[in-house]
Amino acid sequence: MLETSITKARLHARHRLAWMDQLAYELFRVTGRSQLMQCLWLYDRDVNRAALVQTHERLSSLSFNRLIEPSSLPWGRPRWVAGTSIPFEQSSGLLPRSRLLHWANQHARAPVDPIIGPAGRMAIQAFDDGSTAVSIVGSHLVLDGMGALRVIAAAVHGTGVQNPYMRKGARGRLSGCLSDAWQIVADAPQTIAALARIAQPQWVRHAAPGKGPALTTAAATQASSTIVELPAVAVTVDSRVWSACEQRLGGDKSTLLRGFVASLASRLGRRRFSDGAISLLVPRSRRRGLADDRALAIEFHMMNVAPEGLSTNLKPLNAARALRRGARRSQTDVLNSLLPAVAWMPRTAAKTLVDRFFDYAGELPVSCSDLGMLPEGLGCIDGAPCRQVLTRAVDVNVTRGELERSHGHLVVVASRYAEEVCLCIEACQLHPTLTTVDELRLLVCRTLADFELEGDIEA
Predict the structure, then answer these.
(1) Most buried of 78, 296, 402, 453, CB within 10 angstroms?
(2) What is the arithmetic mean of pLDDT over 447-459?
């Protein structure tokens, strides 16, 4: 009996959130802002609903369907627990095909909560031209984009690692408090070291906020709790045309994507106040297979890009060393060394930590995520290949105040499927007025024209 209890205690310890995941969790609790991922499958026919039900059942039993259980102790580590059932919505009515992205946005804004559940949602929608869309939405607090795609592909194939987590509250209050107290003691050396690093003057200088222009009184008044729905479009370009453009402009792999995003950022006015350059925040997956239970298995690199002339010459972007700012270590390396202190910080301090490292006020970072070729079989969500797959980042419950703090917003997620390159773009410029979907579509059209590219745009 004692051996069984020890084994269970170790199992519980293994299910605590990684430091980066805990930071993201604390940010969510401070801001209420939900950062979601959405995958859309578009078929030119009705879908095999029996196969979709089977995929849904498999997905519900994998790590996609888990929740965060906060500790009962003030400085305790949160844990992963098994999720509630994932809602599966099937609409009986038809929508115009032009409403695809509008429907996708509505589905993304249905309740998804990584603490109380559900962890994700699935839906089917038929359109008036005979096509059908399938949508799966999940929280970034549960999995990052690449992790979610791998789990969905595993659900399609029936090869996933079963969800190992216990239900919420299964440890019992006393047992949970004792386990969390022991974890606090075990983490103490890392916590003390992290607090000591934060107290060092050189870190304060390194992490000092950028000196962007101060907000006026009028702008500060507008920085309210009003929720802003961020405009989004999806662009698809023939992959052969895309590759030919990349070669014509002297680019290497992924260079055209970064050049395109930097040019679009320039059109949106998202340039650094110090020198007018574009700060591309490039996430790199560091996931170690399906058994890796981190939500955010990512490291971040900042890439400095001068936007002028990219539509005629991509060679300045080719050097691998451009992914790092001189000899500076990656953002993630430095941030990780401070994360053990997160549990001991006031919640608002976690937000300040992220603001300082990614300098939303001065550098205006632009997120540029390249998922590459999608995992084999991912497009067969109903057992057979679909015509198109869209992979998106969706930010929900974003306030006007949050946008003022970051001086707007631009996130681009790229992927390849079935001879197409897909760019899903979410963006908003604040001044002189909030960007509309039509304005964003026009800016994307003009950026495509700069590179002599043609693409289909969903808006």
Answers:
(1) 296
(2) 96
